[in-house]
Amino acid sequence: MGDGRPYRIVILGGGTAGWMSAAALARFAPATHSITLIESEAIGTVGVGEATIPAIMLFNQALELDEAEFLRETMGSFKLGIEFAGWLKPGHSYMHAFGEVGRQLGLLPFRHYWARGRKLGLAKPLAHYSPNELAARTGRAGPGAPGVSLPYAYHFDAGLYAGYLRRYAEARGVTRHEGKIASVQRAESGDIAAVTTDDGRSFEGDFFIDCSGFRGLLIEQELGAGYEDWRHWLPCDRAVAVPCAASGDFTPYTRSTARSAGWQWRIPLQHRIGNGHVYCSEFISDDEATAVLLANLDGPPAADPRPLQFVTGRRRKFWDRNVLAVGLSSGFMEPLESTSIHLIQSTITRFLTVLPGGPVDDAVRDGFNRRAALEFERIRDFLILHYWANQRHGEPFWDHCRNMDLPDSLKARIEEFQAACVIQPSADELFTEVGWLQVMVGQGLEPASWNPIADGLSDADLGRFLDGVERAAIEAVRPMPQHIDYLASLVTAEAARGAA
């Protein structure tokens, strides 16, 4: 600040968003920054985001968290991908698995050789060339063949994760205060100057991070940053969530099952299974949606179903004046591809790269907002693809989705793939070429042609190449232990270490 006073950052709200923000700032912000978090135990958190994508490992590693301790503290399990059951049509299933599918040959990605092989009857389904899917389908997780490292993510209890990060952050100097925000004070400049809690305490700040959830207490209620509504593309607007007793298969993957007016998630943890039904209230009542969920659980419900209402979309400004929206206050993307926790992570990581220590130039703020908006929009397109490319004819919700007008960005991507097997995501997009490939193919889209370089192999050589790729995937997975055994060995070892 130049006056010897700390740069004061105040975080409004706890939960996953608040404590991930606090932990990251505690780890990386310089000593000149003070971090305060205000939350109320009387205000519940949404807390249903229990599935992640591999980027969470980067966050945990940056905080130098011990994986075994993290798994024990959060009742976590491993995740190798997401199965989509019934999304193309009833009885059909595919997986968006993490990691590579096949391997590049020369200049070309595997998909061009696979597309040619499929036309010739030489190629098997994509699953045969994905080590992650082979492992997931056989219930494996952990170390593979020597030199083989498969990407993975986690399932965990979001409430326990927030508590774990709270202990981490408080041990590194973050100050927590209990209380509800009663009023907000503005400076002459229009910035937020302070917030006052219901017990009369005032907290001044130079910068505020709004983790107040859907309310958007500062970013929207106070600053009016605006909201871009995407329900015309992603019409689901409600969810009901309930945990159930741990039973059934302990899958190292998330399962998303299409229902008549939405979809149901299944997320296995050590102590329970997380379940939820995301649906469109225009096509099914709340009572009917709850009944569908309860009728499709692996075990007895462990709590009362929790209803949620939301509007899919994003904040028009994620960073306005001296307020940054993180988590649900920044927007909502339904958890179809497990991006909720990732968007918290990416927002706070992006913020750290431009961390202020004084007044912020508009160019920095505008650049941040452009990049954040693009990330949301590319994820939006990926989610829309799942709904639009369906063959569930005769079901009003799915018929509606199939007849939607698509964003130009998604329409162009689909046309490129269908024309020539081309997939060209930008370098900073979350979902890779392989991710797009698995969902496009899984949802029934096929390329009409491929890069002619792939024609350079003879039919016999192409067949041998595809067979070799499949054998390599099988061998990579063969030594992997069963998911349940590997997880138990880690957690047990961590518990023994803690007791020593």
From TrEMBL:
Pfam families (alphabetical): Trp_halogenase
Alphabetical keyword list: FAD, Flavoprotein, Nucleotide-binding
Enzyme active site: 79
UniProt-recorded Gene Ontology molecular function terms: monooxygenase activity; nucleotide binding
Residues at which FAD binds: 14-17, 328, 337, 341
Coiled coil: none
Binding-site list for 7-chloro-L-tryptophan: 79
Domain of life: Bacteria
Protein name: Tryptophan 7-halogenase
Organism taxonomic ancestry: Bacteria, Pseudomonadati, Pseudomonadota, Alphaproteobacteria, Sphingomonadales
